[in-house]
Amino acid sequence: MENFYILLKYIVLGFIQGFTEPIPVSSSGHLIIFRHLFHVDIKGLSFEVLVHLGSLLAILIIYRKDLIRLTKNTCHFLLTRKEHAAPDFRFVIYLAIATLPAGIFGFLLEDKIGDISKPFTVGVTLLVTCVALWIIRNLRGKKQDGDITLKDAIIIGLAQTVALIPGISRSGATLVAAMLLGLKQETALRFSFMLYIPVSFGAGLLSIPDILGDADFLWIPGIIAFLVSLLATFYALKWFMGIMARGNLKYFAYYCLAAGLLILIFM
Questions:
Q1: With bands split at pLDDT 50, 70 and 90, how would you rate the model's confidence at 215?
Q2: Taking Cα atoms as reference points, which of 57, 45, 73 lies closest to residue 201?
Q3: Residue 114: pLDDT band with limits 50, 70, 90
């Protein structure tokens, strides 16, 4: 019975992480609330790294064609300086620039972020997310991949840094910034989730020694949680892409409003 409970705990937390990662409601915030409500936790970083890698793999699968194109054209531009490959090269450079703020501030503020990872913080930040999503609910930008500027990349990167605060959705923060800057919905989505790749990959790479050195980690439940997170992220992102295309972001604003108020009132 105990083994079943442990497996169920891993599956549920893996699903929550995977499903909420690509949608603008904050995966970290939902995990904090779930752990608080049901007194469920998993010690150590190995579990968190694995479920985030599951989300990363799902995003790599969905955007595989874009990634292959960007890689080919970036290499082609570096070798030949052909102008037709320049927009994809600049896109990659801007992704790298936008990644830096979150990496730097995440390293510097790691301990302080842990100190504010509480339900009250999540309740407040979900209300902030609600307002931000409501502001952009009807925006329809015109900028495509090749129209992104250095200024756009820096602002979107700084928005991703704000998402270090528990309850602020990473995808939500970057999408709000991108759409306020005039990016088309499809371009905003692509840039936002491409931006997730180096951050998640870098964190996973740095955590490999911790995972391998964690003698207490339960590998079978962990791998199952990884697969659950992968599948949940894949289908949640596909679902969210359809919602973005139909311009239904207001429903996420409603959800964040209701969830934020309930957390502040009852927790």
A1: low
A2: 57
A3: low
d(CA 95, CA 150): 10
Return the structure tokens found at 237. 């992102």
Q: Given phi > 0 = left and psi -120 to 50 = alpha, else beta, which region is 44?
A: left
Cα distances (Å, whole numbers) of residue 137 to 154, 194, 195, 253: 23, 22, 22, 9
Q: What angle do CA 217, 105, 227 make, to 5 degrees?
A: 35
Q: Is 242 exposed, middle or buried (0-12, 13-18, 19+ CB in 10 A)?
A: exposed
What whole-number distance in Å separates Cα of residue 233 and Cα of residue 231?
6
Q: Residue 96's pLDDT band (boundaries 50, 70, 90)? A: very high
d(Cα 200, Cα 85) in Å, to the nearest integer? Answer: 27
Mean pLDDT, all residues of the chain? 88
pLDDT per position as a tens digit, 25-67:
999 899 888 888 877 776 666 778 889 899 999 999 999 999 9
Give backbone dihedrals phi and psi of 41, rounded to 5 degrees, phi first.
-150, 160
257 alpha-carbon distance from chain centroid:
20
Contacts of 161 (CB under 8 A, 6+ apart): 101, 102, 105, 106
pTM (whole model) above 0.70: yes
Domain boundaries, the chain: 2-266
| Burial class for 51, CB neighbours closer than 10 Å (0-12, 13-18, 19+) | buried
